[in-house]
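Regression test case RT-17, inverse folding.

Input:
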């Protein structure tokens, strides 16, 4: 008499923080229809473990030491078969969400969200569907209609976040201070920010600029 096949959802957990990873593994293994078959602390381990175990779902952290979760997501989605990935991050921000979805992720969750949301996302993505929590989807929709910053404006904004003045930015970029002021004006208009400080804060919150 043959044994019944294991129909549990097979999961790979990718997170560079040991305690977080162990907590996820322990919690998910308590779910009757789920089993963590592998874990990884960086993108290379994730790729190796995915190829070895072929899990149904990959739970992917956004920030990791070697490459970020977006790049790792793109790598895994180029595999055959492609991975079904849930990005599970401490960082909100529409730009983070947009980049993750463009890389091939099926869902984007915030770690501070309810555990039930994670379980719902796993079931939904396992069915081949996409999942975004209402707050994440609303934030993404709110910013999609706004004009995006071009590469020159993002470069200026990175230096603003770094605390440089217009003159210092002009010296670093080897452009005139008038050019920097013009780009800064476009940045404020596109972000709907009232000043440089608010623009810098919004850029970090939305994931347009990463600290460090």
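Golden output:
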């Amino acid at each position: 008499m043959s044994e019944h096949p294991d129909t549990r959802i097979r999961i790979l957990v990718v997170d560079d923080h040991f305690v977080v990873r162990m907590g996820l593994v322990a919690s998910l293994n308590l779910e009757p229809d789920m089993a963590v078959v592998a874990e990884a602390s960086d993108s290379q381990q994730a790729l190796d473990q995915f190829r070895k175990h072929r899990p149904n779902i990959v739970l992917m952290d956004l920030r990791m030491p070697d490459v970020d979760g977006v790049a790792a997501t793109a790598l895994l989605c180029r595999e055959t078969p492609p991975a079904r990935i849930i990005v599970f991050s401490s960082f909100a921000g529409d730009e983070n969400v947009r980049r993750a979805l463009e890389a091939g992720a099926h869902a984007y969750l915030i770690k501070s969200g309810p555990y039930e949301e994670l379980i719902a996302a796993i079931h939904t993505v396992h069915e081949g569907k996409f999942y975004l929590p209402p707050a994440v989807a609303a934030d993404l929709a709110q910013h999609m209609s706004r004009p995006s910053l071009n590469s020159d404006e993002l470069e200026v904004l990175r230096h603003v976040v770094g605390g440089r003045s217009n003159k210092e930015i002009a010296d670093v970029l080897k452009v005139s201070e008038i050019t920097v002021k013009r780009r800064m004006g476009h940045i404020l208009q596109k972000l709907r920010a009232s000043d440089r400080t608010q623009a810098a804060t919004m850029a970090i919150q939305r994931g347009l600029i990463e600290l460090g």
